[in-house]
Amino acid sequence: MQIAHISDLHLVADAGPVGLLRKDAVLRAYALIRDLNEFTPALDLVVITGDTVNDAREDEYRVLSGLLAELRIPYLLVPGNHDDRHLLRSVAPHQPYAEPDFMYHRRDLGTLRILALDTLSPGEIGGRLLSGQLDWLAHELAQPFEGQTFIAMHHPPCKPRLGRLDGPTLMEGTAQLQALLDAQPAPVTILCGHMHRPFTAFLGRSLISAATSTAFEFALQLDANEEPPTHDAPYHYVIHALDTQGGHAMHRRTPIF
Ligand SMILES: [Fe+2]
Known about the structure:
This protein is of the alpha/beta class. It has a single domain, classed as Purple Acid Phosphatase, chain A, domain 2 (4-Layer Sandwich). The protein is built from 5 helices and 15 strands. The protein has helices at 25-38, 58-70, 85-91, 131-141, 174-182; strands at 2-6, 45-49, 75-78, 105-109, 112-116, 127-128, 148-152, 170-172, 189-192, 199-203, 206-210, 217-218, 230-231, 236-243, 246-253. The strands form 4 sheets. Strands 4-5-7-9-11-10 form a 6-stranded mixed beta sheet, with helices on one face. A 5-stranded mixed beta sheet has the order 3-2-1-14-15, with no helix packed on it. β14 (236-243) and β15 (246-253) form a beta hairpin. The structure holds fe (ii) ion.
């Protein structure tokens, strides 16, 4: 089984310059979708960890809807701080969301269960896991399950130690999340985004794997006094290849400009 992880598309509806966004952000997102579709052997799922659009506008979600219509692989969505939860839900209304006002849900795929978390806290850059969602997560984790567990969430439940980039990440619920995951019989993999730089870290026994962004990527700048520049490094995403023995991660460099 192969799971691709992408994040932070920051789609816009207009071609004009917007903040740090590359002018070709939408074209790059389409190129990425083509690359995902053409990957062999075929991918089983694409996990998209939030910030799908840039300003949570309806016209941007129409761009997202058109983009996802091109994707020939099942996908899973969670919101980021740039998203509007209800507009994003309307793009993918048939996913098995656990309750009407959030996007957390469970997806089983053979011997893999993915617990998708909704860390969006409207008006804040950082994210929160509130008690209702943590209770749901505890309930799901308590169900008997033979296989591997992935978590998908936008905000990293850690400080990535990336200098000035270490702004708000997950601001509430991190300790409770770690306690739940550390009580699992096997380590869990956490997929997240938000930082616009790839990195890996640990939360207790769980591996955190962060995807970068198609829209812009920060260069590595560890001096907290310096603003990190963006750069033109080739885009890459991670494919998690899983089997009954465990799994490994492959870094796929895409041929997008
Ligand atoms: Fe983002």
